[in-house]
Write a structure and sequence with these properties.
Two copies of one chain form a homodimer. Chain A has 187 residues and is an all-alpha fold. Helices cover 73% and strands 0% of the residues of chain A. The longest helix of chain A is centred in the middle third of the chain and has 27 residues. The N and C termini of chain A lie far apart (51 Å). Chains A, B: InterPro entries: Homeodomain-like_sf, HTH_TetR, Tet_transcr_reg_TetR-rel_C_sf, TetR_C.
């Protein structure tokens, strides 16, 4: 694998595991098996490398989500597939966890790919919900933007509850509770 | 204010703002206007002080939540009051954000008060939902433990989405989307 690619992937892993504040350039170089000179040849520093890593993680999140959104089935079925997809629950969300990182939130160029990823996700979920309204699956009271935010929030909050409990259980409970509410709304 | 109290409150604020990894003993001493000797006279170190601060934040979260849970009204009304309570959305949850902190998650004595707080919260929410089932407000399909986890997750995930967008809006959307789903379930 090319050095640039190794640097990006190692930074993705370290940001997921340790966050931005907890990730040092030294740790990145060690994980990527790259020298300091090589890292600074390709990137101006930790911030630029982190930006590339967050963008990559955002792309991966979008690709994985799109698989379920574009699958056949009713809106509730597609949302259910998305919610029930296999996830490394206890590792949390690679993108969402960065919102707890004050240095990421304070830097507009680092926050931008986090913001864009969640805007895309909420937008796509809103489209699926809107389709469910058009086909008569959901009643007029359901607002696509609101419901989309609720769905995205249940996943992000589910990770928080799971990590707090050191168990997947609260995540699974939160997801199943949401699926039941969506089914009740479409009943 | 007593030194111990100043140390705990300063640590609560720093953990909220910077997280555990990002909070140094020096920063705590500065914020508390306490000397190093004074801090180590009262606490064995950053971990013990953080434990006291997380416990305090957990107590405050429980007290604030109980106000809405114990208020009069239907289950949906009480949950709505809880969800719509004034919150410093962009600061996020003082307890929830700690789940992104690898050193807090790796230390059982630091994770314990985080875990206990969310267990209590989910338990109390499940009681309110169960009351709503007993009074016929919610149908038999609604599982109190699942719905409680969904409600807690929407708040925690709402914070994540709001911080990502640097705006309260996604939090408000997620909350209103959940309230509509709860109303649909009880209709």
């Amino acid at each position: 694998m090319e050095t640039v690619e190794r640097l990006i992937r190692s930074t993705q892993e370290l940001l997921w595991e340790r966050g931005y504040v907890g990730t040092s350039p030294k740790a990145i170089q060690r994980a990527a098996d790259a020298g300091q000179g090589s890292m600074y040849h390709h990137f101006s520093g930790k911030a630029q490398l982190a930006r590339a890593a967050i963008e990559r993680s955002g792309e991966e999140l979008r690709e994985a989500a799109e698989e379920q959104f574009a699958s056949p089935g009713t809106a509730t079925e597609r949302i259910t597939h998305y919610l029930e997809r296999d996830r490394e629950v206890l590792r949390g969300c690679r993108i969402g966890r960065l919102t707890a990182d004050p240095d990421v939130m304070a830097d507009p160029t680092l926050r931008a790919p986090v913001d864009e990823t969640f805007r895309w996700l909420r937008g796509r979920l809103a489209e699926v919900v809107a389709e469910g309204k058009r086909t008569g699956e959901y009643p007029a009271t359901i607002d696509p933007d609101q419901t989309a935010a609720t769905i995205a929030a249940v996943l992000q909050g589910g990770y928080v509850l799971a990590r707090a409990a050191n168990s997947d259980e609260p995540f699974e409970l939160a997801v199943q509770g949401l699926i039941t509410l969506l089914q009740e709304a479409s009943a």
